User: What shape does this take?
Amino acid sequence: MPVSHASVRLVEPAPSEVERPRLRVVGLPPLEESHPDVAAGLLELAGTRRTVERGSLLYRSGDRLTSLYVVQSGLFKTCLSLEDGRSQVTGFQLSGEWLGLDSIGSGRHHSDAVALEDAAVCTIGYEELESRLLESSELRHQFQRLMSREIVRGHDMMLLLGSMCAEVRVATFLLDLTQRMHARGSPATSLVLRMTRDEMGSFLGLKLETVSRMLSRMRDLGVLEVTQRHVQLLDAPALQRLAHREER
Amino acid sequence: MPVSHASVRLVEPAPSEVERPRLRVVGLPPLEESHPDVAAGLLELAGTRRTVERGSLLYRSGDRLTSLYVVQSGLFKTCLSLEDGRSQVTGFQLSGEWLGLDSIGSGRHHSDAVALEDAAVCTIGYEELESRLLESSELRHQFQRLMSREIVRGHDMMLLLGSMCAEVRVATFLLDLTQRMHARGSPATSLVLRMTRDEMGSFLGLKLETVSRMLSRMRDLGVLEVTQRHVQLLDAPALQRLAHREER
DNA sequence: CGTGCCCTTGATGTGTTTCAAACTGGGTGG
DNA sequence: CCACCCAGTTTGAAACACATCAAGGGCACG
Assistant: This one.
């Protein structure tokens, strides 16, 4: 790996290269912990399976917390909704990732969770989770790490939204999504965006037109090919460079 | 309280008024859990006391996680730092609030923690915390709530940074800080900003000049009085209205 | 009584939003 | 099977909010 100054860091760095680790820009809790294969311990807690069809809600803001969820298949978004109809997407969750961690503090969900395609989740009863965490310190540790990583993701998003220009935001988003999909067996250089430009924009603090323009610009630069929701990465290193131009 | 449509929600709503709770915009983990008086259980874990003088670091990004900290006195900021010297403030921590929760996931700190004035913290050894959490499910629960609330704060910040204009951001920040200081015994209508305009700006995704301009605008509107770092709230309801104008 | 840091204010520049129009593809019903 | 429709997308032109650049002022500190 030639770069030492500007690599996107979505997974934990190898111990040896940690000194003052550069930022992992964005990224749901990394896979070691959140992907089913690896978080097998926590997944044993899985209760009933539940399917959620495209467009419908798994839970909504204000609902009492009864269970947490792990995505089995499909894709979700979580979003905060304001009275006036506006909303902010706070995350997109792929298979193996958790939903509802933000509701533990108050016992109520703070966001809506919407399936962006037909999906299935494992239901993990909160009561049962609690009692299992009592038994196993390993599980407890895993669960704490899960929450901690979600905190880190929040901080990374603050950085992205607070100090990066539109092009960097979109490039970072594409890289992040590609890597996460790749870790689930998708090709490393092609990507299907299952969310609308509007939803991407909401997540990135941009208007849909701006997202569209950035995609077009990257297409014109020869970095990628866009046909509707299909994206082909033609020049991944260039995309990484775009994601690390820390300007505004 | 006359408003039912636009009140800033920094603490948990009373159970009766919860239905579709409107957003608590911004706010460190609310006080029930994080203030020493209330999180007494967790505070029993406090090990050594450590003082940090103004301007110096409690920990820095990349440091191995050995303990978590609870602010006893003084004020901290946490920030992510980029190679190029730029940085993003991810939070300001007052007495009773925790530092280091983001480091549990990887075992290393992901941010720098800097004292903005002479400060003192309780040191909570991570190993010891772990073993205590094993013993008491009540403590474990409290700790999980703490982390969950920090996740919620992250989401609220995404909303603030992603969809609110400068005036709303600054007004929200002032309200939040006033409330948190008030809960610690400070007057409800006066405030000392212990951070620079630049640090506020970094936290809010704005340039220092913009922060300054917004403060001046609110002063001109008769909402508050600003003399250097001292802020007098002349019209708190008006400030709340500014914080809820959800425009950009 | 300077010297340096922080803050304010003005003038100008620019990236993103807003507004508007046209295009696309997938789905539906005639 | 085609025509239509509609949600989503692209693109352009104009407006605007915030950033940038620059200058001046105040307070704290040595």
User: Anything to note?
Assistant: Residues 1-23, 25-38 of chain B have pLDDT under 50 and may be disordered.
